[in-house]
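Late entry, glyceraldehyde-3-phosphate complex.
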Amino acid sequence: MSRVPMLIGNWKMNKTLQEARDFAQRLGQQSMHLKPGCEYAICAPYTSLHLLRVMLPAQVQLGAQNVYHEVSGAYTGEISAPMLVDFGTKFVLAGHSERRAIFGESNEMIARKVSTIMKAGMTPILCVGETIAEREAGQTEHVVKEQVLSGLANLESGEVETLVIAYEPVWAIGTGKTASVDDAGQVIGWIRQILVDQFSSSVANHVRILYGGSVKADNIASFVGHPEIDGGLVGGASLEADSFVGMAKAIEGGQR
Ligand SMILES: O=C[C@H](O)COP(=O)(O)O
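Prediction complete; structure with ligand written out below:
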């Protein structure tokens, strides 16, 4: 089956309101380049969500970078899924390697977030990927399998087929080093096989699996051109509207 490719920006902890406004204005001026054959979203800091909801071109959906698994209560500093739904948020990242490494999120916590996001009617983007030490020790397949299976542990098959997975080798994030298209395609192929074994071929064929790690306008088409890779989760290159549009054009111009 053919899956609609995705271009998802992750701003991480970047942009004041003025900077977010400048981005949205510039993107709006070029929105004719955001063609319907691809799905677009920006995962912004909470502080920019309202502004982006108002200002982003209609083709670009709203995403958040994190959520807490409880709905309300005494959890100082946290944001719940219903609060994100209020802003019109469609996607929420779960298990980004920066959350795992810097904030100590375990596979179990990530699984709770994934089901919370799904139950609230939003789409989780479950991020998985090995460190350089794990890759060099030949553990990539094992690590990714554990992250995928534990991340999805609280979902039914019908829920799994609507979610998005992002394979982001930790050593390729923000470093300028990308995985080769073949290596990324191989790991994403393993992930799809895990979904076949655990759920069914039909579920596995629906799930979009993205590559992330130093993706930009001049390399995204080669990733999306690989039959297993359904788009990009992009950090640095999503911060400028021109570069976001450059990636959209590259996907549109690529062979898929
Ligand atoms: O979520 C995005 C990834 O961490 C990739 O970031 P990057 O494109 O800056 O390498």
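The chain has one domain: 6-253. Will revisit in the morning.
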